[in-house]
Design brief:
40% of the residues lie in helices and 18% in strands. With 324 residues, the chain is of the alpha/beta class. The model has no long low-confidence stretch (mean pLDDT 94). It binds 6-O-phosphono-beta-D-fructofuranose.
Length: 324
């Protein structure tokens, strides 16, 4: 591997925040410090890149923020960066500040942005997968997924207490724009009666059969991913069609899943990927995403990083056994 000397690296967080982003920033700042590289933070993702919103990153401050969700650098979903004009302004800011490498923490939209940017900007980029949805190939887990699942589990356990007290049916919607990973994991870990995810299509027949046999001396919990094409309201109305007397409630867990203290796994993942991103730049890598596959660091070119919708055969079997 080459030994490249960078003078000034910049880092930003982009898209939906996810627990563990601060730990990744801490990993980056420590490794940059050790390597004698100047490091700047860019606030508010691509928006800050366009506006030249640069701040110094303080290792000591980040050390004390490993346990905090959210992102010290703030984040945004930038419409302006989708335009060539926006990207050109971003390039001018990089040149003005002598930035010779960029690290971005975010989801697949963030990596698509980097790919588009690479057409006009030739400094190396490294990506770190940060999204609670766990819907990116090239890594077993994305930063924040484990924490979000733990938050969902904690809340579903609480819902079970009240559901069982009233013998109610609960439809619990969890996050995952196009992906059912949070639903599968949180549903399996809380022993829910059904799990509805976008990848397998909602199978009403199975669900309605189960509901028919449901006796009102028990609770019935259904976890539904927000990405499910039918949606919680329609599922609820179908259930009421077959049994108008059911006592049913819908709970949307929503953005609580994005916040809160990162789990041990997400803190470790953040630190490992943060250090690996700076290392990758020193080794001369460019335009790759750092991930962990089988507990080993793995680098995937941006072109090969795809939004992952598939639910593997093993998980499909688990769904058949426990969640249908
Ligand atoms: O970051 C991923 C995610 O939390 C998805 O699960 C969800 O669909 C989306 O972001 C919500 O985005 P926003 O916070 O912009 O409403």
């Amino acid at each position: 591997m080459k030994n490249i000397k960078h003078r000034h690296i910049a880092v930003f967080t982009s898209g939906g925040d996810s627990p563990g982003m601060n730990a990744a920033l801490y990993g980056i700042v420590k490794k940059a410090e050790q390597s004698g590289i100047r490091l700047s933070g860019i606030r508010k993702g691509y928006e800050g890149l366009i506006d030249g919103d640069l701040v110094p990153l303080d290792a000591h401050k980040l050390q004390k923020m490993i346990h905090r969700g959210g992102t010290l650098l703030k984040t945004a979903r930038s419409k302006r960066f989708l335009t060539l004009e926006g990207r050109q302004r971003a390039l001018e800011n990089l040149q003005k500040n002598d930035i010779d490498a960029l690290i971005a923490i975010g989801g697949d939209g963030t990596f698509k942005g980097l790919l588009a940017f690479s057409e006009i900007c030739d400094i190396p980029f490294i990506g770190i997968p940060g999204t609670i949805d766990n819907d990116i190939s090239g890594t077993d887990y994305t930063l924040g997924f484990d924490s979000a699942v733990n938050t969902a589990i904690e809340n579903i356990d609480k819902i079970r207490d009240t559901a069982e007290s009233h013998n109610r049916i609960f439809l619990i919607e969890v996050m995952g724009r196009d992906s059912g990973y949070i639903a599968i994991h949180s549903g399996l870990c809380t022993g829910t009666d059904a799990i509805l995810i976008p990848e397998s299509g909602t199978d009403f027949m199975d669900l309605l059969d189960k509901i028919k046999n449901y006796h009102s001396e028990d609770a019935f919990l259904i976890v539904i991913s927000e990405g499910d094409e039918i949606g919680a309201e329609l599922v609820a109305s179908k259930i009421k069609q077959i049994n108008k007397d059911v006592d049913l409630r819908i709970t949307r867990l929503g953005h609580v899943q994005r916040g809160g203290n990162p789990s041990a796994l997400d803190r470790m993942l953040g630190i490992r990927l943060g250090v690996a991103a700076v290392d990758a730049l020193l080794q001369g890598r460019e335009n790759v995403m750092a991930g962990i596959l089988n507990n080993q660091l793995h680098f995937t070119p941006f072109e090969e990083v795809v939004k992952q919708h598939q639910v593997t055969g093993e998980f499909q079997e688990l769904l058949e056994l426990f969640g249908k």
